[in-house]
Amino acid sequence: MKNIINILTTICLILFSLSGNGSIALSNETLKQFSISKRKTFSTKRFPKAKGLHMTIDYPYTWTTKLGRRPNVVQVLQGKSNKGNLSQCIIIVKRFQRQGGEKIEFTPEVLQSISGGMGAKYLNGGKTIIDNEPAGWLLTKQDVNQAGINITMYALHYMILYNKYFISIQLSVGDLSENEKLKEDFFSMVPLFIQMGNSIIFPEKYKQ
Predict the structure, then answer these.
(1) Is there a contact between 124 and 15 (Cβ–Cβ < 8 Å)?
(2) Cα 176–65–74 angle (5° rounding)?
(3) pTM for the full predicted model
(4) Can you give the pLDDT at residue 101?
(5) Torsion angle of alpha carbons 134, 89, 51, 93, nearest 10°?
(6) 7: burial class by Cβ within 10 Å (0-12, 13-18, 19+)?
(7) Domain coordinates of the chain in residue numbers?
(8) What is the spatial distance between Cα 200 and Cα 208, in angstroms, rounded to a whole number?
(9) Which CATH number applies to 2-206?
(10) What percent of the chain stands above pLDDT 90?
(11) Tell me: the pLDDT tens digits for 154-170?
(12) Measured on CA atoms in the order 88, 90, 25, 195, is the torsion positive or negative?
């Protein structure tokens, strides 16, 4: 819990500096409901795209689920942000093979490289731990033109190395690029996103 509090403090300070007007809403109805366990749990068990990984993550009870259409995308959890924009959690699972005793750390250089690979702008990031497994967190902004429409998306990513898996959890808010309140909207969702990240569990670790 102390680790998550440190992450929340760090990210909120970063978001404060990025926001310009210092507007960060640390409480909202969805977060309140989530905090009192009014939530659902998604499990990757028996999903072919999870490649045998059993992981669970909690999400708001008002959100819906749909199967991922792209390779390695196990599931997409979707709902509305505080200002009514699209908010979603995309769960990606890939097989991962370390070379010998290779040690991988989520350094700023590694995280910037990951951002570049996604075609996104790196805002900030760092190391963390999720369910006692090495992980990294990453803040990005991405501008894309999709079918002639300009879209902007802000995202908080969690990347986890667990056994033979590389897991990416992308928590985002997106809308038309002309939406001047999108950045502020994303900031207000970050506390919820962090609680969702903190809910991730790998049940197989706890079997007797």
Answers:
(1) no
(2) 95
(3) 0.84
(4) 62
(5) -50
(6) buried
(7) 2-206
(8) 20
(9) 3.40.1000.10
(10) 55
(11) 999 999 999 899 999 99
(12) positive
